Amino acid sequence: MSDNKEAFYDRADAMIKLANEQISEGVSRGHVCDSFIYGLSRYSAWMSATAWNSSEELANAKEDTIKYFMSQYLKMLDENIEDYIKNYDTYMSNT
């Protein structure tokens, strides 16, 4: 995290708010989640491409790039599932 935590969480909350709005418009949670994951992967691919000067450089970095993003996602997913385990009744009481 290169900036302050408040800004980090504010951006994440804005994306979650958009996802929740789509659910309230009648789209299933699963479909919204699939779109969220696709959008994140598309953005991550674009961001990665901006670091290189050619498609060859990007191709050479592909494996390390995927490992990086997967490790970050797994770490954050684990942290959030642990949070839900500890706070399940509180978080799920409004669902």
Notable traits:
globular; mainly alpha; 95 residues; 82% helix
TL;DR of this structure?
The chain has helices spanning 5-24, 29-49, 55-86, 88-92.
Furnish the topology, listing elements before pairings.
Layout: H1 5-24, H2 29-49, H3 55-86, H4 88-92
Helix pairs in contact: 1-2
Describe this structure in words.
It is a single chain. The protein folds into 2 domains: 1-50, no CATH class; 54-95. The chain is 82% helix and 0% strand. The protein is mainly alpha-helical. The model has no long low-confidence stretch (mean pLDDT 95). Helix 1 (5-24) crosses helix 2 (29-49). The protein has helices at 5-24, 29-49, 55-86, 88-92. It starts with a helix and ends with a helix.
Q: Mean pLDDT, nearest integer? A: 95
Identify the overall geometry.
Answer: globular
Give the oligomeric state. Answer: single chain
End-to-end Cα distance: 30 Å
Query: Approximately how much helix is present in the residues?
Result: over 70%
Radius of gyration: 16 Å
Proportion in β-strands: under 5%
Largest sheet: none
Number of strands: 0
